[in-house]
Specification:
By secondary structure, this protein is mostly helical. It has one domain: yeast vps74-n-term truncation variant fold. Helix content is 56%, strand content 7%. It has 9 helices and 4 strands. It has a two-stranded antiparallel ribbon. Strands 3-4 form a two-stranded antiparallel sheet. A hairpin with a 3-residue loop joins strand 3 and strand 4. Helix 2 runs antiparallel to helix 6. The longest helix has 22 residues. It is globular and about 50 Å long. GO terms for molecular function: phosphatidylinositol-4-phosphate binding.
Amino acid sequence: MNGAPLTLPEELLLLALEPDRGGFLTNARYLRYGVAGAVLADLEEAGRLTVGGGDRITVLNPLPLGDPVLDGALAALPGPDKRGRGITAERWVRRTGRPVQELCVRRLEQRGALRRTTRRALGLFPYERFPAGAVDLTGPARDRFAGALDAGFPDRRGRLLAALASATDLDRRLLTGRGHRPVRREMKRFAGEFWTARAVQRAVRQDKEAGANAASP
C-alpha cells in the first residue's frame, strides 16, 4: 500500500501540510475545494468522467479504479438531472470537499504518511492536526513539485498540480517573495486552462467575496 503511486489529491494535501505541526499552509476550506478538484482531474485522466458546457460533469464509466479516494468520489457523483444535465464542477467541489478530503486523510493515515491528533483550543474546542507519520511521503512530494518547477512544469500532471496550488492560494506559501512572482503568474494561467482548477478558483473567489461582503459596514 505504501509503495502505490500518490494520487493527485494526496499529493496536493501533502504539499499543503506542515510536517511538524500538522497544520495547513493555506485556508482549510480552500484546500478542501482543491482536493475535490484534484479528484475530478484524476477521474478524468482515468476516463471515468468528462465535462461539457457550463463545466457540467458526466460520468462515462462508473467502474471503480481500486483506490478508495477516487472510488468514493466516483460513487458520490450524481446522475443527470431531469433535463439530462450533470452537476457543475464548482457545485460538486463545494458540496463534497469535506468528505473527499476526509477520505484522502484516511488513505494517507493508512499509508503511514501522517498521523491524526486532536487538540483543544482554549481547553474547550476540539480541532485536528495531521503531523507527518513514519513513512515520509511529504518530502518526495515536495521534491517532485520542486523538480517540476525547475523544469518549467513540462508535463500535464505537474501543470495540474501547479494550477490547483494557485487556485487554493497555496502557491503564495510554497513560493514566497518577489522573485517567485513570475512563476506564480504562470501557475495562475494554468489554473485558467483546466476546468477542474477553474471550479476550485471560482469556489474560492465566492468565499472571498462573501467574506468581504460580511466585513463591509
